[in-house]
Amino acid sequence: MTSDQVVSPGAVIGILGGGQLGLMLTLAARRMGYRIAVLDPAGAESPAGQIAEWAGSLTDEADIKAFTRRVFVVTLEWENVPVNLVERLIAQNIPVRPGVYALATSQDRFREKNFALKSRVWPTRFRPIGSERDLLMAKDCTELFPGILKKCRDGYDGKGQVSVESFGGLECAWKDLKYESCILEERMNIKCELSVIVARRPGDQELVAYGPFENEHENGILRTSRYPAGSSREVSEKAVRAAKKLAVALDVHGLLAVEFFVKENGELLFNEIAPRPHNSGHLTIECAETSQFELAIRAICNLPWGNVGLHSAGEMRNIIGDEVNGWEADVASASPKTCRIGPEEFLHLYGKREVRPGRKMGHIVRRRPPDEHFQGLGSTR
Ligand code: ADP
Ligand code: MG
To answer: How far does residue 182's CA lie from ligand 1's centre (Å)?
Structure first.
């Protein structure tokens, strides 16, 4: 197909990865009349696989072939999809969106931060730790301590990261990370964390951006996101501009989520990208005209944007690990701190079969009606 062809409803969209992001993408796509095929390590047991028209295993050759025969366009909901699988699909003339360049960049923290630097979107200070020599050279980089040593690949939800107080602890931290390629990053006092979700589509120069959302983490895992963020208008606008710049530079056709840190002095720093829907954007299901998931489908199918913009303020709270076992009691108890579901509160459960510590099992959105101060800044075109 040509790059700016419209993918019409009725076509099968393939999704690489079948977690909660795939589930919510599938729900949005079905509502718009698309059919969904999913490849995930857990196949039909995965959250998206349970409701897709077809699901197979990401590691099974016969399933990959069957997926390839079905799909018209492919998107992803997981950064660690093998790049060679994506290249194989592209070689068979199946577009994979947001794109292999954005995917490969997001898979490697060193490459990702260098890309941001090259695009003049300033990241936290960092340097690579991939050899004995790198380790020794870090001795003189006092500005990076206290720091965080992060594996370049396969980290998520704070996994694959070790805090390092001083140079003396670096080798031990690297050993903990099995001497894999890492980056050492300055550990900062962060005033707040922001994220922006940008949508860009093949036939159109007009970008849509949602956010910034303000994010709070616990143990490296996202706990809550809220909109609007408490950042100043200047910082918020800067974050949106930077995210758009990166989406263009990466030639994204689909969604690009960009995470930022705001330092105590108000300085905005790049943290990382994800070429997919983002946990911080879940509240767009209830608080926006068009959710991030529908926006993703519109972008990959090259449909017009339609109505975009956040119409309400809101807060999303993740349900993590065995918190999911208590939600019925919480609903009944009306305890304000937990999962009480009242008017303007929306519960999402992902149908994951196994509860594991730190695993995202669902989320709750609390929507606030717009007050007189609500600016509806959420979508900037
Ligand atoms: P992940 O891929 O696991 O999301 P991140 O690099 O975004 O990895 O780190 C997860 C969280 O850990 C961040 O959202 C932030 O709360 C904290 N964190 C990461 N890097 C730093 C840093 N350099 N300084 C302070 N906190 C950090
Ligand atoms: Mg992150």
So the answer is: 14
DSSP 149: E
Contact by Cβ (8 Å): 90, 96: yes
Which of 221, 270, 271, 273 has most ligand 1 atoms within 8 Å of CB, for mutation? 271
What φ, ψ does residue 14 adopt, rounded to 5°?
A: -95, 140
Nearest CA to ligand 1 atom 13: 220
Render pLDDT for 158-209 as a digit per residue (tens, 0 to 9). Answer: 899 999 999 999 999 999 999 999 999 999 999 999 999 999 999 778 899 9
Give per-residue burial for 3-13: e unless 16+ CB within 10 Å, then b: eeeebeeebbb
Instruction: Give the global pTM.
Output: 0.94
Cβ of 286 below 6 Å from ligand 1: no
Beta-bridge mates of residue 225 = 215, 316
What pLDDT digit, counting tens, does each position of 52-65 carry?
A: 999 999 999 999 99
Where do the H-state alpha helices sit in the chain? 20-31, 61-70, 83-91, 100-106, 109-118, 132-137, 170-176, 233-249, 284-287, 292-301, 327-333
**Ligand 1 contact via 155 beta carbon (within 6 Å):** yes
Extract the tokens encoding 189: 């006092």
Question: Which residues make up the environment of ion ligand 2, defined by Cβ < 5 Å?
Answer: 259
**Is any atom of ligand 1 closer than 6 Å to the C-beta of 154?**
no
